[in-house]
Design a protein that fits this description.
One of its GO terms (molecular function) is UDP-glucosyltransferase activity. By secondary structure, this protein is α/β, with parallel strands linked by helices. It contains four helices and four strands; from the N terminus they run βαβαβααβ.
Length: about 130
């Protein structure tokens, strides 16, 4: 009896912009990549350099950068929850919600098999599956 090889999937990860979310997502990405799956990890631009060293499978895990738009009251350059006090997290959430056009374009172009997300309630609207 012939062994059936496990299918390989393309998975998109889109965690909340906080290291307590992004790091576990990257650990999961490493586990999935170890099994041969390809991962696209959507994250703010400046975060890529901060997480790159945790990417154990750079040939299977690629980073797709987002530009975080300006929101009145959000400090310039703020991209993660650690960039702002907790009292301003609602502004970061607003900024992340304003990335919908970027995320939509990425999801349409990537044509992934799965999308993992946590707080972007709108992300599945554009996932092709």
């Amino acid at each position: 009896m012939a062994m059936v090889k496990n299918p390989r999937f393309h998975i998109v990860m889109y965690p909340w912009s906080a290291f307590g979310h992004m790091i576990p997502y990257l650990h999961l990405s490493n586990e999935l990549a170890e099994r041969g799956h390809s991962i696209t990890f959507i994250l703010p631009k400046k975060v890529q350099s901060q997480l790159q060293h945790l990417n154990l499978h750079p040939t299977l895990i690629s980073f797709h950068s987002l530009t975080i738009p300006y929101v009145d009251g959000l400090p310039p350059g703020a991209e993660t929850a650690s960039d702002v006090p907790i009292s301003l997290h609602h502004l970061l959430a607003t900024a992340m919600d304003r990335t919908t056009d970027q995320v939509e374009a990425a999801l349409r172009a990537l044509k992934s098999d799965f999308l993992f997300y946590d707080t972007a309630y709108w992300a599945p609207l554009w996932h092709p599956n």
